């Protein structure tokens, strides 16, 4: 039996350096650091004068120097390398490893790079950079310090290239994520500024309309008074919308002031249900308030907590047809109280049970929905509940089977 000769990857010293390279390349998510690591590793392992990374530019249809070492490396970024008539282009197109130990006389050599820089390549080893089945670029080692490049060198550089491709892909993913996050942050800031500006600018004209309508109702009679009443109703509805926008903006910015004190939860619910009485009656609904006599208290803001149940109850009224029923229930447990608002309304599709608590979310398309609203009520309720250390969720049997919104709050003490 013959014995197999040991290759370069069997060298413990080389393997150790390759492991160190893997750790180094994958320990940074900064593009410049990763590219410098690739170049330094390539030059050290292969004992060559320079190294370069070229990536495919899909818009131009050529290769461009992403990073390079050696003299005039900064000028290389300005030189596009064609896929035809260059060693790098041949490597990229064919996926082959190329060893050229007489670059000057190699017909595939792209001479313009040497003409525009002071670096003259004598020997070259190039391997494709791959991510999965896709070739993304080329990694080159240039000018072996002693002799020419060998097949053993190509195996080492292939290992470097495989690790480099993974590291560069990870960096690209992180950079894409950072850009997406920055864009979302910019959009979020624009939204917040718009909401604040709209709320501020609409308050003054709306106050004038409201005061004028109230004055007409007090002084006029007949048709004029009736028209003024409708104007006042519309103005009050607009004021609710402005208040919702303002509250949502404050909650998102984290500037909503909170003064938490022990509040009797049953009384809070009774007050909210009493205030909703006119809307419930106007729509011909039956409201059942099923609250236990247990004097449960929660540590909550006296202005914010009622807003939670007002929004949840208002949502139930809006989506429950005339003649329907709404039950407001309070169950007390050892460490929390659970408020449930159950209606016989249009129901919620299973896939929407989480989405209904998102900002500006509407289950129905905005062009066809018939029930009005900005889609902020439940989103505001969720944010306030979470500020109080609680949880809110919804249950429904689906279309026309009603829905139940549950609010869990920790008890005081």
Quick gist of this model?
This protein has 413 residues and is α+β, with helices and mostly antiparallel strands.
- The CATH topology name of the largest domain reads Beta-Lactamase
CATH class of the largest domain: Alpha Beta
What amount of the residues lies in strands? 15-25%
| Category from helices, strands and their pairing | alpha+beta
Number of strands: 13
| Series of secondary-structure elements, N-terminal to C-terminal | HHEEHEHEHEEHHEHHEEHEEHEE
| SS element count, helices | 11
- Helical proportion, percent range: 40-55%
* Poorly predicted residue ranges: 1-5, 365-373
Tell me, what's the shape? elongated
Q: Strand order across the biggest sheet?
A: 3-2-1-6-5-4
Q: What's the average pLDDT? A: 79
Number of individual domains: 3
The end-to-end span amounts to 82 Å
Largest sheet: 6 strands, antiparallel
Overall radius of gyration: 35 Å
**CATH superfamily assignment of the largest domain?**
GAF domain
In the CATH hierarchy, the architecture of the largest domain is 2-Layer Sandwich
């Amino acid at each position: 039996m013959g014995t197999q000769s040991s290759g370069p990857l069997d060298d413990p010293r080389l393997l150790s350096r390759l492991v160190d390279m893997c750790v180094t390349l994958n320990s940074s998510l900064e593009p410049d650091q990763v590219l410098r690591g690739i170049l330094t590793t390539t030059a050290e392992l292969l004992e060559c004068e320079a190294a370069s990374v070229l990536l495919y530019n899909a818009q131009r249809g050529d290769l461009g120097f992403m990073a390079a070492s050696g003299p005039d490396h900064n000028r290389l970024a300005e030189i596009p390398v064609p896929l035809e008539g260059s060693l790098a282009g041949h490597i990229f197109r064919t996926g082959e490893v190329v060893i050229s130990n007489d670059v000057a006389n190699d017909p595939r050599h792209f001479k313009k790079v040497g003409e525009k820089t002071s670096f003259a390549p004598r020997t070259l080893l190039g391997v494709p950079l791959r991510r999965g089945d896709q070739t993304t670029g080329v990694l080159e080692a240039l000018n072996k310090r002693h002799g020419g490049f060998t097949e053993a060198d190509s195996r080492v550089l292939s290992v470097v290239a495989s690790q480099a491709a993974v590291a560069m892909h990870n960096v690209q993913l992180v950079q894409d994520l950072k850009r997406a996050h920055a864009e979302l942050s910019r959009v979020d800031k624009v939204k917040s500024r718009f909401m604040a500006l709209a709320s501020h600018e609409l308050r003054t004209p709306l106050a004038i309309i409201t005061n004028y309508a109230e004055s007409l109702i007090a002084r006029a009679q007949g048709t004029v008074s009736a028209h003024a009443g409708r104007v006042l109703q519309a103005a009050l509805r607009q004021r609710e919308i402005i208040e919702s926008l303002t509250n949502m903006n404050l909650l998102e910015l984290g500037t909503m002031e909170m003064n938490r004190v022990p509040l009797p939860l049953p009384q809070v619910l009774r007050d909210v249900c009493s205030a909703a009485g006119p809307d419930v009656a106007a729509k011909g609904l039956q409201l059942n308030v099923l609250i236990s006599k247990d004097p449960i208290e929660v540590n909550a803001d006296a202005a914010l907590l009622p807003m939670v149940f007002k929004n949840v109850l208002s949502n139930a009224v809006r989506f429950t047809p005339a003649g329907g029923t709404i039950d407001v229930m309070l169950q007390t447990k050892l460490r929390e109280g659970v408020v449930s608002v159950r209606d016989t309304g249009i129901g919620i599709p299973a896939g929407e049970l989480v989405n209904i608590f998102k900002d500006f979310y509407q289950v129905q398309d905005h062009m066809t929905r018939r029930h009005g609203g900005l889609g902020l009520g439940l989103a505001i309720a969720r944010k306030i509940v979470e500020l109080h250390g609680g949880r809110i969720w919804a249950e429904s049997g689906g279309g026309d089977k009603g829905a139940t919104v549950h609010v869990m709050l920790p008890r005081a003490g």
